[in-house]
Specification:
This protein is α+β, with helices and mostly antiparallel strands. The relative contact order is 0.13. Bound molecules: dioxothiomolybdenum(VI) ion (MOS).
Length: 750
């Protein structure tokens, strides 16, 4: 089916790279308009309660201030009767800025200052005083665990646990080896480099051009039109460049609402950019508590898997993610019971953060697997190999492909796993204990729906357009490569236009589905262009392609030719000239194949191997080596693909050792809302990371063989690090992040 590849599969440098490194790629708030106003948000200083009064006088008389908005004077929005449907909607009531006197979470916007300059808005905002009647905030997931409930309205049916199979409790009780423990993971906050921000440019005719940091320009456009009752023809949302997002940009944030509200109210262009601090008051990876119980027979074959997960949500929405279901399909087991609940906290609604659910759930499962390996007395990798399953037992479906054995084999070999001495604390150099740990990762290989348009010009140039987003993942580049391949041109001859709501329809960029989905749409559009080209070629006099079908032709060196005989063909420029066309443009579509998905599940898989060194006296952990072996179908671009996995591994190291939203549970307020005190891995924390892609052919997960790479890189990393720490120190730390105080708390090498 696929010809010899000339561009797809090559490590092409990202085509948007030069724009980014020269500063000519303009992000959401790097646009301007004459007479633009600037907005600044005043965040609440309580986590729950009521606003008694907002004192705005001083701010209003501050030089340059145009208007101060509070819940008392906010212009009406269509909110309640809006027909708008968030693509990433949650059951409950989405947060509506400045709606009333209720405070639902720390940092909630309680006032919004608009001024002639950013500085004036910021300084005036500091003059606003708010009187509150605070309530008692509940923000500790461990304390609220007993109030957890099964979400009454599922966000997605597949997030709900599969029906229990077998009799997990009885099997657990009968098995010779078992482990059962609680795992706690603290809440994490997305920290993309680009802050959330919106620039609203008001056209002379009242049209709005909105530059917005989002993972879905069309979702934001629909939000603006729905909430403010605007004509969709008169609102364009652009997100040509997005400086990271990790899922935080899936849903519109209050900056968009406030910017558009003020722009319409004041009839001026507007800019609103959040501070780094405000980024901590938004969606977050929910804190969670999980109980995982595993049992095995004498050879390590799993006899029972029980996984009970509870994670946080807000008072106003039931955020949900698939935390625990992975435990029912990762390994072969006939006795499985999965339970899933959420618990309300007085915090902002959590949101999807890179591998939402899987990153947390597989941390617990894969740590528990390591514990089980020690209980049985076999190598942790061997335990996984013995329990390999090529079937999705949750859904009782076959799996499209699962080259996980190759991940185990190639990853272990590259890492040198075979020379591991199993005894904890057995590898030491001076003051450092060395530990080797491993874990597996899974993520869904999904497709969503998308359209793309491809235009072929007479001179052979090609343009690709789609509303798709590139959040730093490489979307521009891989779409360019697919088009270049189809038309046999260098990627430099392709112009990729994405990141705007007025381009062909695409869903939000998330779930690792963009390459498979938009890539397929581009390929289908290219095929449609070639078919149209062939139709025109057939109409030419003495056409050598008169009897050819679309399956029999391809483009080679600027000519439409017979696949089997490149001599027989017509130059593209001649076809266009004869048809009197300057270009040919066609639209292609992509969607999940329901017939395939009825029979198959599709997942990406990984095996992660980690070496840590733990300072015996200081408890400091360094992750000195990581090998991540990934099976993700066809790799369109090994360079951007590797970057995705590298980023995921770094984020996983952060999950293991660093990232933790610290809340003062007495006040319910976030204490470390900056990246000085909220730790993420810095350069000094990151050493050798090696990424391997194992060979995996899959024609079912997506028509172009792609499975997606945005999320799999993080999954399993935190567990592998914790398992390595156990191997180094003999200490099992089940509270993430594993900070040095936890390592020092009890004796190393018991
Ligand atoms: Mo992803 S967490 O679906 O952006």
């Amino acid at each position: 089916m696929l010809h010899h590849s000339k561009v797809v599969g090559l490590p092409v440098s990202r085509i948007d790279g030069p724009l980014k490194v020269t500063g000519t790629a303009h992000y959401a708030t790097e646009h301007a308009a004459p007479g633009m106003l600037y907005g600044y948000v005043v965040p609440a200083t309580i986590a729950t309660g009521r606003i008694l009064a907002v004192h705005t006088h001083e701010a209003e008389s501050f030089p340059g201030v145009v208007k101060v908005y509070t819940h008392e004077n906010r212009p009406k929005a269509a909110f309640r009767d809006a027909k708008w449907k968030d693509e990433v909607a949650l059951p409950g009531h989405p947060f509506r800025p400045l709606e009333n006197d209720r405070v639902l979470f720390d940092g909630q916007p309680v006032a919004f200052v608009v001024a002639e300059s950013f500085e004036a808005a910021r300084d005036a905002a500091a003059l606003i005083r708010v009187d509150y009647a605070p309530g008692e905030a509940k923000t500790d997931i461990c304390a609220e665990r007993h109030n957890a409930y099964v979400p009454p309205v599922p966000r997605m049916p597949q997030f709900m646990p599969p029906k229990p199979r077998g009799d997990a409790e009885t099997a657990f009780g009968l098995a010779p080896h078992s482990v059962s423990n609680d795992y706690v993971i603290k809440g994490e906050h997305h920290n993309p480099m680009e802050l959330f921000g919106t620039t609203v440019i008001l056209g002379r005719d009242g049209d709005l051009t909105i530059h917005e940091k989002t993972q879905g320009s069309q979702n934001s456009q629909a939000y603006v039109c729905g909430v403010f009752g605007l004509d969709p023809e008169r609102v364009v949302v652009r997100n040509r460049f997005v400086g990271g997002a990790f899922g935080q940009g899936l849903r519109p944030k209050h900056n968009l609402f406030l910017a558009v509200m003020a722009s319409l109210d004041l009839n001026r262009s507007m800019k609103v950019e959040m501070s780094r601090r405000e980024m901590f008051y938004l969606t977050w990876r929910p804190s969670c508590v999980q109980t995982v119980s595993l049992a095995a027979d004498g050879e390590g074959h799993l006899q029972a898997v029980l996984h009970h997960a509870v994670h946080a949500t807000s008072r106003h929405e039931d955020y949900q993610e698939n935390v625990a279901n992975w435990s029912g399909l990762a390994y072969a087991c006939d006795n499985v019971k999965i339970e899933y609940e959420i618990a309300k906290l007085d915090m902002a609604t959590p949101g999807d953060m890179r591998a939402p659910g899987a990153a947390s759930g597989l941390t617990a499962l894969e740590a528990a697997m390591d514990e089980l390996a020690y209980a049985v007395g076999i190598d942790p990798l061997e335990l996984r190999i013995r329990n390999f399953v090529h079937r999705d037992q949750n859904q009782d479906k076959d799996i499209t492909s699962k080259a996980l054995h190759a991940c185990y084999r190639e990853g272990a070999e590259r890492f040198g796993w075979a020379s591991r001495s199993p005894e904890p604390g057995s590898m030491r150099e001076g003051n450092e204990l060395i530990g080797w740990g491993m874990a597996g990762g899974i993520w869904e290989a999904q497709m969503s729906q998308a359209e793309a348009r491809v235009r072929l010009f007479a001179d052979g140039r090609v343009t690709v357009s789609a509303a798709a987003s590139d959040i730093g993942t490489g979307t521009y580049t891989i779409l360019g490569q697919l088009a270049a391949e189809a038309f046999d041109i260098p990627v430099e001859r392709v112009t990729v236009a994405i990141g705007a709501s007025d381009l062909p329809k695409t869903g939000v960029e998330g779930g690792s589905w963009t390459a498979a989905t938009s890539g397929t749409a581009v390929q289908n559009a290219a095929k449609a262009v070639i078919k149209t080209l062939l139709d025109h070629a057939k109409n030419m006099e003495n056409s050598p392609l008169a009897d050819a079908s679309e399956e029999q032709v391809e483009i080679s060196e600027g000519r439409l030719v017979l696949e089997t005989n490149h001599q027989a063909g017509v130059a593209i420029s001649d076809i266009m000239a004869s048809a009197g066309l300057p270009f040919i443009a066609e639209t292609g579509k992509a969607a999940p194949d329901k017939a395939i998905m009825a029979k198959f599940s599709a997942y990406t898989h990984s095996a992660v191997f980690v070496e840590v060194r733990v300072d015996v006296e200081l408890g400091v952990v360094s992750v000195t080596r990581v090998v991540s072996a990934v099976a993700a179908g066809r790799i369109l671009n090994p360079k951007t693909a590797r970057s995705q996995i590298l980023g995921g591994v770094v984020m996983g190291i952060g999950m293991a050792l660093h990232e933790e939203g610290m809340i003062d549970h007495r006040s319910g307020r976030i204490m470390n809302h900056n990246i000085a005190e909220y730790h993420i891995p810095a350069h000094a924390d990151i050493h050798d990371i090696e990424v391997l892609f194992v060979e995996e052919d899959d024609d079912k997960a997506s028509p172009i063989g792609v499975k997606g790479l945005g999320e799999i890189g993080i999954v399993g990393v935190a567990a592998a690090v914790s398992n390595a720490i156990f191997h180094a120190t003999g200490k099992r730390i089940r509270h993430f992040p594993i900070t040095l105080d936890k390592i020092l708390e009890s004796e190393i090498n018991p």
